[in-house]
């Protein structure tokens, strides 16, 4: 796969992300106005409008696609399927989190704890998960909250995946 094709695909997917945010903002606008999320849910503190999603989601999409390009210079079908599965599982997780949040379910806490436990065994810190998670939950939360929260979550998941492996390598080196 040549680099021109990858660049065209990256531009197309970034433009698609702009369209999806515009569609979300259009729905919000006609349902009572664009939502602003306030820090600590207090109106006296500064807020982040969902309008910022027009910048944050396409920028995040561009950065993630650039990281995917750098991570896999060759493109085998298996690698592309793994990226697609990560994206789809991120979308499904975002939809599930959004649904559980809207029905005010206590299962959401267990779902997040399960994600942390799962991250000890599976690397869940790739950007495909972030884009999928943001896309899956954008209708309920808007893009900004999910990108900020998802980035923090990915950092935690990376730490939970990496630290036990580092300790194992350190222990193994001292034993040998």
For the biggest sheet, the summary is:
2 strands, antiparallel
Roughly what percent helix?
over 70%
- Give me the count of strands: 2
- SSE run: HEEHHHHH
Please report which band the strand proportion falls in: under 5%, 5-15%, 15-25%, 25-35%, 35-45% or over 45%: under 5%
Oligomer: single chain
- Going across the biggest sheet, name each strand in turn: 1-2
Low-confidence stretches: none
Compute the number of structural domains: 1
Mean pLDDT: 88
CA-to-CA gap between the ends? 43 Å
Overall geometry comes to globular
Class from helix and strand fractions: mainly alpha
Number of helices: 6
Radius of gyration: 18 Å
Question: How would you describe the overall organization of this protein?
Answer:
The structure is a single chain. The chain is mostly helical and 176 residues long. The protein contains 6 helices and 2 strands, in the order αββααααα. The protein has a two-stranded antiparallel sheet. It is globular and about 65 Å long. The relative contact order is 0.12. The mean pLDDT is 88.
